[in-house]
Design goal:
Blueprint (H helix, E strand, L loop, with lengths): L1 E6 L7 H11 L3 E5 L10 H6 L2 E6 L7 E6 L4 E4 L13 E6 L2 E7 L9 H22 L4 E6 L23 H11 L4 E2 H5 L15 H4 L6 E5 L7 E6 L15 E5 L3
Parallel strand pairs: 1-2, 7-8
Antiparallel strand pairs: 1-12, 2-4, 3-4, 5-6, 6-7, 8-10, 9-10, 11-12
Family: Belongs to the DNA repair enzymes AP/ExoA family.
Pfam family, one: Exo_endo_phos
Protein name: Exodeoxyribonuclease III
């Protein structure tokens, strides 16, 4: 089964790119981030015409997450990350699909740091860590995937010396990601490519894509019950070169059936 994550950076504005990639890559399950569309403006019919069922949590102008499944039912578990009833951001959605719990997330950027936005990022991260621990207690196959807005190590960022004060690379952010993975989650890309330079995001400015000056911020974390089934992981880097594309690349893994 092929499972993908893709920060589309505006689902309606990038819809031709999304549909082209779905047709080309044919993933079975997809988590989308940054829909940037209110609930009623999600392109449900176009997604269904492409062969996918969908659940989504939209938000006007910002955020927004979705889970798509090709020819499979999606049983929604949650559309909010526990821990803050006042948090109105559409950043998390969770469902059962084909006997796997899928958590799709869009972690806050946090810039400028330090400041209120960075505080919110760390608070959100703390909520994710606590929820992830509860998911592990289920001892079921679980995937937590999406745009984490964190480069875990210097291998995951072009010219790391320039990013020391950025919210995506500050020590507090990297420590939070390590605390999460230390629970027992497997970083799928790093399991298969421990020493390779792999990026999933390229800024629109300064020819970042052409220079391969990127960041690895879109991640797959697999629970211990699912990690042994990991067979492949790739970044569809070429999609970043398409016209009117997102600044993120789709990332996907393949897991064996039970």
């Amino acid at each position: 089964m092929k499972i993908a994550t893709y920060n589309v950076n505006g689902v309606n504005g990038r819809l031709p790119v999304l549909l082209r990639w779905l047709n080309e890559s044919a993933p079975d399950i997809v988590c989308l981030q940054e829909l940037k569309a209110p609930q009623e403006k999600f392109p449900e019919q176009e997604i269904r015409d492409a062969g996918y069922n969908a659940i989504w949590h939209g938000q006007k102008s910002w955020n927004g997450v979705a889970i798509l499944a090709k020819g499979m039912d999606i049983e929604e578990r949650s559309r909010v990350l526990p821990g803050d009833p006042e948090d109105l951001h559409s950043r998390y959605i969770e469902a059962n699909v084909n006997d796997i719990i899928i958590g799709g997330l869009y972690l806050p950027n946090g810039n400028p740091a330090p400041g209120p936005k960075f505080d919110y990022k760390l608070q959100w991260f703390d909520r994710l860590i606590k929820h992830a621990a509860e998911l592990l207690k289920l001892e079921l196959p679980v995937i937590l995937t999406g745009d984490y807005n964190v480069m875990p190590t210097e291998l995951d960022v072009y010219k790391p010396e320039r990013w020391g004060e950025d919210a995506l690379f500050r020590p507090e952010t990297r420590a939070a990601f390590k605390a999460l993975t230390d629970q027992g989650w497997t970083d799928a890309i790093r399991k298969l490519y421990p020493d390779e330079v792999i990026y999933t995001f390229f800024d629109y400015f300064r020819n970042a894509y052409g220079r391969n000056a990127g960041l690895r911020i879109d991640h797959f974390l697999l629970s211990p019950t699912l990690s042994p089934r990991l067979k492949a992981a790739q970044v569809d880097r070429h999609v970043r070169g398409w016209e009117k594309t997102s600044d993120h690349c789709p990332v996907w893994i393949e897991v064996a059936d039970k």
